[in-house]
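Exercise 7. Given the encoded structure of a 83-residue chain, write a plausible sequence.
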């Protein structure tokens, strides 16, 4: 299994195997290197795992931001009815 790096540009994500000499080429073309590294059998499997990681991050962000807002609204409603 190989380790893959990811580069993105305008919503397009590519997987590049670690040690490939083309990494500098992607940076020169305007791609940005992503933080994630994935160990996978193929580039397609690495991209699938990358998208799974990003989807999980989006779910966590949504849960983290909506949880306190929901609890604050409940506390406000409880305060208004108790007072």
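Solution.
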């Amino acid at each position: 299994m190989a380790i893959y790096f990811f580069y993105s540009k305008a919503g397009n994500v590519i997987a590049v195997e670690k040690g490939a000499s083309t990494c500098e080429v992607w940076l020169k073309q305007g791609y940005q290197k992503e933080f994630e590294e994935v160990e996978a059998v193929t580039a397609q499997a690495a991209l699938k795992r990358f998208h799974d990681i990003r989807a999980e991050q989006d779910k966590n962000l949504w849960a983290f931001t909506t949880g306190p807002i929901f609890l604050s609204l409940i506390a406000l409603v409880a305060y208004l009815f108790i007072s």
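Remark. The beta strands are 2-9, 12-17, 32-40. Students should compare their own answers with the one above.
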